[in-house]
Design goal:
single chain; 98 residues; mainly alpha; two-stranded antiparallel sheet; 2 strands; 8% strand; globular
Length: 98
């Protein structure tokens, strides 16, 4: 499956990051939030789309540290990783990835 296709599949899906007190649970705002990881991203380079989670705009802003800077960074990164695992599981269960 192409990277672009995984990104487009986020539209209308439930947020998989689900940060408590942050998530707006609005599927109409869901996009793919790439997980930043040394060696997979850098200046002008995003990680592969499989390394990301479907996120509402509020959770996406929090994981990208545009908002909710008061949240513990490790907590946010763990929620993002768990969201990525849920996103991959959904894609697998739908037969979109093997």
């Amino acid at each position: 499956m192409s990277q672009d296709r995984i990104t487009k599949l986020a539209r209308g899906r439930e947020c998989q990051i689900r940060l408590e007190g942050v998530c707006n649970f609005n599927a109409e705002t869901t996009v793919l939030a790439h997980y930043r990881l040394s060696g997979l991203n850098g200046m002008g380079m995003k990680p592969p789309s499989l390394v990301g989670a479907w996120a509402c705009n509020a959770c996406h802003d929090a994981v990208d540290r545009r908002s909710h800077m008061d949240l513990d960074r490790d907590y946010v990164r763990l929620a993002h990783l768990e969201g990525m695992a849920r996103t991959i599981a959904i894609l697998s269960n739908e037969g979109r990835i093997k």
